[in-house]
Design goal:
- The structure is a single chain.
- This protein is of the alpha+beta class and 109 residues long.
- It is built from three helices and five strands, in the order H-H-E-E-E-E-E-H.
- The mean pLDDT is 83.
């Protein structure tokens, strides 16, 4: 850590190799802090969508809440009101609240 601070303090006087190393370190830090958590959330959502079953409550990317009526290969039929089923692409499912609550309970124990 002190090497990083001393390199920053030297400014233009530093060796070009140190500057290159600093840039690489910054990119790695940004990837770990910003991009990796987002990738993990996307992977978890994909797993939940694959494990989705009839009767699960879901929320679509457009904010529509409903209950899964049937599941196709690429689509999901969601019951949004009595007698009204709307068909969505599986990619339109933004969250599955019942599965998320179960995952949180499992993580707390």
């Amino acid at each position: 850590m002190s090497m990083i601070i001393s390199t920053l303090a030297q400014g233009q006087q530093g060796d070009p190799t140190n500057t290159f190393i600093m840039m690489i370190v910054m990119v790695v830090i940004m990837w770990v802090v910003l991009f990796r958590p987002q990738q993990k959330r996307q992977k978890e959502l994909r797993q939940r969508v694959e494990a989705m079953k009839k009767g699960d409550k879901v929320v679509t990317a457009g904010g529509m809440h409903g209950i899964v009526h049937s599941i196709g290969e690429l689509t999901v039929s969601v019951k949004v009101a009595e007698g009204i089923n709307v068909e969505f692409d599986k990619t339109a499912i933004a969250s599955i609240p019942s599965a998320e609550k179960a995952a949180q309970k499992g993580a707390k124990k």
